[in-house]
Specification:
The chain has about 250 residues and is of the alpha+beta class. It contains 8 helices and 10 strands. The strands form 3 sheets. It has a 4-stranded antiparallel beta sheet. Strand 9 and strand 10 form a beta hairpin. Helix 1 runs antiparallel to helix 2, helix 3 packs across helix 4 and helix 5 packs across helix 6. About 35% of the residues are buried.
Length: about 250
């Protein structure tokens, strides 16, 4: 395959979802695209736009969010390197939530219409995209349960367990922990709590010995214990055990 910056990474990601032929892989790499770079808080996708591109995170963290009429924000997903940010909008006429950079990010922005044609012309690619969108929906369902049915301290612990596992799979693990570039306000927006409440919850998790914290670096002496406390199972992430070696401490 030609060495097209960005899209070979997309091809590799989709090839882990299903068997793709050389023709499928070459067609992915040949898709028209641009490389987008954004500073923190930059808008990658705006609610209400027509979906002209489908973006894939190459580096950095981003989030999807909804804003109420009163201006309150609910973060509905956190995207890491290797994630599509707006795949569910590919066959829709309008974008129904925004996507914002949480750190400096680099993304491959693939033109939507050629990607739609590729999905129709290459059934295996369509299946891989369908699996990606289905996993995205599974994570959405777990987040609904987390916000709606878990106590505040468990909500935050569950989010930390998920992001620990996902950052490890993205190659961002640091020793027995990970760096999470989210403010306490942003964590609160993801779990339906105020920043003040999040601060109390993090202190509680630290006092109980479930997590360690230094700035935005989070670790744990016993991730299994934290997972048990957090009611966390990685089943909803649908991780492919053949895609990478299981992360230490929090293997699926």
């Amino acid at each position: 395959m030609p060495n097209t910056p960005g899209l070979e990474v997309v091809a590799q990601k989709l090839a882990r979802r299903t068997d793709l032929t050389e023709s499928d892989l070459s067609a992915i790499v040949a898709l028209p695209h641009s490389i987008t770079r954004l500073a923190p808080s930059g808008k990658l996708v705006r609610e209400g736009e027509r979906p002209s591109h489908c973006s894939f995170i190459l580096s950095g963290f981003a989030c999807r969010h909804k804003i109420t009429r009163a201006g309150a924000r609910q973060i509905t997903a956190v995207m890491l390197p290797g994630d599509f940010v707006d795949l569910p909008h590919l066959f829709l006429n309008v974008v129904d939530q925004g996507v914002q950079a949480m750190t400096h990010i680099v993304a491959a922005s693939i033109e939507a219409e050629p990607l739609r044609r590729l999905a129709l012309d290459h059934p295996a690619v369509a299946r891989a995209l369908w699996v990606e969108a289905s996993v995205d929906a599974a994570i959405d369902r777990e987040w609904i349960v987390n916000v709606g049915r878990r106590e505040s301290v468990v909500r935050v612990a569950h989010l930390l367990c998920e992001l620990a596992l996902r950052t490890a799979r993205a190659g961002l693990q640091i020793a027995d922990g990970f760096e999470l570039p989210m403010t306490q306000e942003q964590i609160g927006d993801a779990v339906g709590l105020t920043a003040v409440h999040v601060n109390r919850v993090l202190r509680s998790l630290t006092d109980q010995g479930l997590i360690t914290r230094e700035g935005r670096y989070y670790g744990s002496a016993d991730w299994r214990q934290l997972e048990h406390f957090a009611d966390f199972s990685s089943l909803y992430l649908h991780l492919d055990p053949a895609a990478a070696d299981p992360p230490s401490r929090w293997a699926a």
